[in-house]
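User: Predict structure, ligand S-adenosylmethionine.
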Amino acid sequence: MEEKQHDRLLNIKTRGLREWRDPGVTYNRYEPTPYSALESLFQVYKLSKTDKMVDFGCGRGRVAFYVHNRFQVPVVGIEANERTYEEALRNKATYRLRAQHIKAPIRLVFGLAEHYEVEPEDNKFYFFNPFSVSTFKLVTANIMTSVKKKRRPVDIILYYPLPKYKKILQTKTPFRLLTKIRIPRETDKTKKFLVYRCR
Ligand SMILES: C[S@@+](CC[C@H](N)C(=O)[O-])C[C@H]1O[C@@H](n2cnc3c(N)ncnc32)[C@H](O)[C@@H]1O
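Assistant: Predicted complex:
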């Protein structure tokens, strides 16, 4: 299914890019995870009713709405770009018109991912290259603080994983690679998912 059709199905608008105006920022631009990639991931990697996903740098909310719709689980999206965040809020309103029957909450937070206080129920953390590796380090440290307070298995899902992100996880955290999910017919072999687990 095409990107446009998929957006239409969820009643949202998530296509396109948005660059940051200030070229000095260490935050990356908005670009959505392709729906075809999400389909490949979630054919293999399933969520259960007790899971809760956080998308760090959720952009217009595509991953959050997709996951909410497919698995009916609570989702959180954190976005630092004000205009993009407002678009995510508009998407939530239109998405909800067709998804009133799904009771799980959708929470969109305006702010920096590194300032988000990880909640004891959060257990699936999604990243599509939102920011620099130094910010990624802060966010993974926050995840680990939460896990130490409330022991539970948690996963980090990386789309289009950067070598620097992989290195942090492997050398500075107890997360270990659980699975690698490739996208059929994708010629760029770096466009894949890596799922890391901390047990
Ligand atoms: C590559 S997009 C990914 C969007 C979405 N996760 C997806 O996969 O469809 C990265 C997003 O992260 C946001 N971002 C960058 N730095 C951030 C930060 N420190 N805190 C929260 N959001 C941030 C950007 O504005 C952008 O919307």
